[in-house]
Structure formats: C-alpha cells, structure tokens
C-alpha cells in the first residue's frame, strides 16, 4: 500500500501524486494542481472547517465513535475521578503529570496571582448594572493585556509561563466579580487560604461572614465540572484563540477571543437551552408529545447529539454522577426527573438510536449549575474558567510550532469586478 493519493485533473488530463501523512493531504500540495501557470492552484472549500486539520496537537485526543476523550493521553474518566482541576491544568500546560514538588510550586504560583490590580476592579465597576457577566469577562481578560504589556514578548518561555499562571489564577476572580456586579453586591477579594475552586465559591457567595465555608462536596463537584471542560481540541473557541494568537498578539488578547467565541449560543449556551426546554415540558406526562415534535422536525432535543461524538459523550456520564452528589447536598432539582425520563425514552427510540444521538456534556450541566444557585448567564463563565488551561495549552503549542503561520484562509470571490467609480456628486445629481 502506498501512502499517497493520485488525482487526475480532467481539465488537463494530468495526474498528480499527493503524499498522505497522518490521514491527511497537504492543502498546499493541492495548490500545485493548476491547468496553466496563470490560473490559481486548486484550493479546498470548507466552511466551518468540517474536514480540515488546522494544526498538529498533542493536547487532547477524541474518538467520537467510541466516546473517548483523553487529555495528554489520560482518559477523562480517570482524571475526573482521581485528579484535581489544578493538576489537570498542569498536565495540559506542561504535557505530563507533576511531581509533588512541581505540583506544590504550581498551586503556590496560581494561588498567589489570584488578585488583580485595583484598576481592573474600577474598570469592571464601570459596566452597566445589568451587564452580561460573559461580556464583562471577555472585556476584562482583554484589558489585562494593558496591565501586563510585557506579555507581548511571547518568544520568551519564562514570560509565557508568567502570563499562563496569571490568567489561570485571575479568571475565577474576574468571573466572580462579573457575577457580583450583576447582583449589585460588593466584589469579594480572593482568599488565598482556600483552594482554587473553594476560593471561587467564596468570591461568588461570601457576604458578611469572616470566612466562606463551602460544602466540600459542592467544591468537588464544581472542580470536576472544570476538569470536564478543560479542553476539547479544535472547537470554535480554541480555534479562535489559535487564529488570533497566530498574529503573535499577547495571550490575554488571544484568550479574550476565545471567551468571545464561547459567548455565542451555538458553542457555550446549550445547557441554558436544555433548562428552558425542560421547563417548557413541565411534567413527565408531556414528554411523549415533546418527543413527537422533535421527531416531526419541529424542534431539537437540546443536550443531545454532537458533531464529534456519535456515542455517549464521556463527559455526560461523569456529570450525571456529579449531579447526584450536588443534589444530595442542595436537594434534587425538580427538572431532573424530566431529564432522566427524556433520556430513557430517547435512548430507546429508533429516531435517536439510528442517528446516534446521545446525551452530551450540556444535558445535565445546567441542572447542576442551577442547583448551585448560578443564574443561566453564569453558565458560560464557568465553562470559560474551566476551558482557560486548555486554551493556554493550545496557545503555547501554537507559538512553539514551527509549521504554524498567521491564520489566513482563502475565499471564493463572488462579487463584482472592475466597476468604474462614479463620484458621489455625479451619482446624486
Ligand atoms: N434533536 C433532534 N434531532 C437531532 C438532534 C437533536 N438534538 N441533533 C441532531 N439531530 C438530527 C438532525 O435533525 C439530523 O437528522 P436528519 O439526518 O434526519 O436530517 C441528524 O440528527 C444529524 O444532525 P446534524 O444537525 O447534521 O448534526 P451536527 O453534527 O451538524 O449537529 C449539534 C450537532 C450538536 C449541533 C446537534 O446535535 C444539536 O443541535 N444538538 C442540540 C444542541 C446541543 O445540545 N448542543 C450542545 C453540543 S455539546 C457542546 C460542546 O461539546 O461544547
């Protein structure tokens, strides 16, 4: 078997051998296919990059048919069960698990960079009373680039490390303050005696008590949710981080682009849509009618189906367990009963089975977030905090990858050509 593709250009009758490497051909090799020297080479038309590899990456592996997700080779199930979010963040950034000394140093670094400059606080206080927390997060992460102008020096490894630590450390502070702002409550400063996730909960919910003491089961559940969201290879927001980062801008600006992409309802907003759907269904008795509507093509079963997973999303299984833990502490979300029944019916129904539609990560996550007292606008902020190490690991890989160039897709031009401009005074007379 030869690892190449023979292409015959029927315009000229000429044949080309294109090498196949890692299951791909190089788009640049296609560019060599041209009927004559003065016609453009063949290009690939692929809106949404549905079948285009944009990079080589050693961060995250997904096998959608088998329902496998691994960070740096470690199955998500093992990481969710046995690791912590900061350990997973270390793994994603550094590529291997930390020794005890490395882990302690990492936690220390992250913990002592949780505070932000007071002017960041005034900046955030300037937002309108009803500002969406995701918009505030996007702007304030981007604003950090002005507080750390040294971040522009992306060719220096130590400097890059500093910005990575700062961003992972400060994301919960910015996220929590965005939440407090919408509630008209004073911003709470980080409490560095607490772990990463417990500190986040303290900044979110602390009022007049001297120390916020979150239930460890809730801290653990949120930590697991952060782990599950920490990376998902070349999704829309990661692609945004890489694309913007390819201009060699500082990492705060690149991550702000990732937050912006996540803000969109097709990416970060599906769990909120699941809650709306469950509320609309209202009772178990209404489920058959709802399923009929889905099968008739009138609506979608939100939280089901995935572009990549054609099997049970491995994250959904873990989230279901986390949901049970949370409900044990705060009481069962009444919508859970409807969700469970929906899942049961859908998993047995030919429509969903034949299309390989299974619950995805968003089917249960909204239920947990709601039980933890988060309003829907905060769901995507939580996603962004969890995804930050993934964005940064991908950014780090990008800036060190000699094969990467500034992202600059081609287009198929469909507009006019060669028009003659008539000045306004003549056109309007
Ligand atoms: N409910 C009912 N039918 C569905 C659903 C659904 N949730 N998802 C896909 N289908 C059907 C679709 O109608 C099509 O049927 P047919 O072949 O008869 O036309 C078939 O399944 C294939 O669907 P598709 O739209 O081609 O699949 P896609 O890969 O383009 O879409 C998706 C993936 C996630 C956008 C889609 O499954 C969907 O809209 N799901 C609901 C929204 C949702 O839960 N989104 C969260 C995704 S997970 C987020 C993350 O990983 O970050």
Q: Helical residue percent? A: 40-55%
**Corresponding CATH superfamily:** Citrate Synthase, domain 1
Query: Judging from the principal axes of the Cα atoms, what is the shape?
Result: globular
Q: Give the structural class.
A: mainly alpha
CATH architecture: Orthogonal Bundle
Number of strands: 5
Total number of helices: 19
Q: What is the highest CATH level, the class?
A: Mainly Alpha
Offer a concise description of the structure:
The chain has 429 residues and is mainly α. The chain has 19 helices and five strands.
Show the helix and strand layout.
Elements (H helix, E strand, L loop, with lengths): L3 E6 L4 E6 L7 H4 L29 E4 L4 E4 L2 E2 H7 L2 H10 L5 H12 L6 H8 L7 H15 L9 H27 L12 H10 L10 H14 L6 H10 L5 H13 L6 H12 L5 H9 L18 H17 L4 H14 L1 H5 L7 H10 L4 H25 L23 H4 L2
Antiparallel strand pairs: 1-2, 3-4, 4-5
Bound molecules: carboxymethyl coenzyme *A.
The site of carboxymethyl coenzyme *A has 16 residues, from loops.
Model description:
- The chain is mainly alpha-helical.
- It has one domain: Citrate Synthase, domain 1 (Orthogonal Bundle), CATH 1.10.580.10.
- About 55% of the residues lie in helices and about 5% in strands.
- It has 19 helices and 5 strands.
- The chain has helices at about 25-30, 75-80, 85-95, 100-110, 120-125, 135-145, 155-185, 195-205, 215-230, 235-245, 250-265, 270-280, 285-295, 315-330, 335-350, 350-355, 360-370, 375-400, 425; strands spanning about 5-10, 15-20, 60-65, 70, 75.
- Strands 3-4-5 form a 3-stranded antiparallel beta sheet. It has a two-stranded antiparallel sheet with strand order 1-2.
- A hairpin with a 4-residue loop joins strand 3 (about 60-65) and strand 4 (about 70).
- Helix 2 (about 75-80) runs antiparallel to helix 9.
- The longest helix has 27 residues, at about 155-185.
- The radius of gyration is 24 Å and the shape is globular.
- The termini are far apart.
- Bound molecules: carboxymethyl coenzyme *A.
- The site of carboxymethyl coenzyme *A has 16 residues, from loops.
């Amino acid at each position: 078997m030869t690892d190449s593709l023979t292409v015959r250009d029927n315009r000229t009758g000429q044949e080309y051998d294109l090498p196949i490497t890692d299951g791909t051909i190089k788009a640049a090799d296609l560019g060599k296919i041209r009927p004559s020297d003065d016609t453009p080479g063949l290009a690939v038309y692929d809106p949404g990059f549905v079948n285009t590899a944009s990079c080589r990456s050693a961060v995250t592996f997904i096998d959608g048919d088998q329902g496998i997700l691994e960070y740096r080779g470690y199955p998500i199930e093992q990481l969710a069960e046995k690791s912590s979010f900061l350990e997973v963040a270390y793994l994603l950034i550094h590529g291997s698990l930390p020794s005890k000394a490395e882990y302690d140093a990492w936690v220390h670094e992250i913990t002592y960079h949780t505070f932000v400059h007071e002017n960041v606080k005034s900046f955030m206080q300037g937002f309108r009373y009803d500002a969406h927390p995701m918009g505030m997060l996007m702007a304030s992460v981007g604003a950090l680039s002005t507080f750390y102008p040294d971040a522009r020096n992306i060719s220096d490894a130590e400097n890059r490390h500093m910005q990575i630590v700062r961003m992972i450390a400060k994301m919960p502070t910015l996220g929590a303050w965005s939440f407090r702002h919408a509630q008209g409550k004073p911003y709470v400063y980080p409490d560095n005696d607490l772990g990463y996730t417990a500190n986040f909960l303290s900044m979110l919910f602390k009022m007049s008590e001297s120390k916020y003491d979150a239930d460890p089961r809730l801290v653990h559940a949120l930590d697991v949710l952060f782990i599950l969201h920490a990376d998902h290879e070349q999704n829309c927001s990661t692609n945004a981080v890489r694309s913007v980062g390819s201009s060699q801008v500082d990492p705060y600006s690149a991550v702000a682009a990732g937050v912006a992409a996540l803000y969109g309802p097709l990416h970060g907003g599906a769990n909120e849509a699941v809650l709306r759907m469950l509320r609309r269904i209202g009772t178990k008795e209404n489920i058959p009618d709802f399923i009929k509507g889905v099968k008739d093509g009138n609506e979608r079963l939100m939280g089901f189906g995935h572009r990549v997973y054609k099997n049970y999303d491995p994250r959904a299984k873990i989230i279901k367990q986390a949901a049970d833990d949370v409900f044990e502490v705060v009481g069962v979300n009444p919508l859970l009963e409807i969700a469970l029944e929906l899942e049961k019916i859908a998993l047995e129904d030919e429509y969903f089975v034949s299309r390989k539609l299974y619950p995805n990560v968003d089917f249960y996550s909204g239920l947990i977030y709601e039980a933890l007292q988060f309003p829907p606008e905060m769901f995507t902020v939580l996603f962004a905090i969890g995804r930050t190490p993934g964005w940064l690991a991908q950014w780090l890989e990008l800036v060190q990858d000699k094969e990467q160039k500034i992202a600059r897709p081609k287009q198929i031009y469909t507009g006019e050509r060669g028009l003659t401009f008539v000045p306004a005074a003549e056109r309007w007379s």
